[in-house]
Specification:
The chain is an alpha+beta fold and 158 residues long. Helices cover 39% and strands 17% of the residues.
């Protein structure tokens, strides 16, 4: 019968220490093989916390399922800051371009409730609001209104 372990690991930087080592130690899997597989599959997220599910069998075989990092982590990574603003409505910590917002939305689309990239962008903009991140130099709430009004529709044409 398959067992699962769910954890967060830094993309491309997993190691046999905590949190993986203690979780995998009592299992029949080769810990180094699991760590290598996780690093191979998460290399694109370079250091960003990535949710990983490891499913293993009693014979030592395993499968890795890599999720998408939280939206806030993707924004922080893209904009290059560590901590959001303590007063996000008035003090801003970073600025993103519409293309950066779209890129994050495309990465998150499978995990979001949105049915297209434009609506996924609205969800990303909502997270920017909470973190104190401006978009194209303006308050994210104002940017969202312009996005909803269709001012940026040319960015979403296929």
């Amino acid at each position: 019968m398959a067992e699962t372990i769910e954890t967060l690991v830094p993309g491309g930087q997993a190691n046999p220490g905590p949190p993986l080592g203690p979780e995998l130690g009592p299992t029949p899997v080769d810990v180094q093989a699991v760590v290598q597989a996780i690093n191979d599959e998460t290399a694109a997220f370079d250091g960003t916390e990535v949710p990983v599910t490891i499913t293993y069998e009693e014979d030592g075989s395993f499968e890795i399922e890599v999720g998408v990092p939280p939206t806030a982590a993707l924004i922080k990574d893209e904009a290059g800051f560590e901590t959001g603003s303590g007063t996000p409505q008035s003090e801003f910590v970073a600025d993103l371009s519409i293309d950066q917002v779209k890129q994050i939305a495309e990465q998150k689309l499978p995990d979001l409730l949105a049915y297209d990239v434009k609506n996924a962008c609205k969800e990303v903009v909502g997270t920017c609001t909470s973190l104190g991140v401006t978009i194209e130099g303006e308050n994210p709430r104002e940017f969202k209104e312009r996005l909803e009004a269709g001012e940026f529709d040319d960015h979403f044409e296929d």
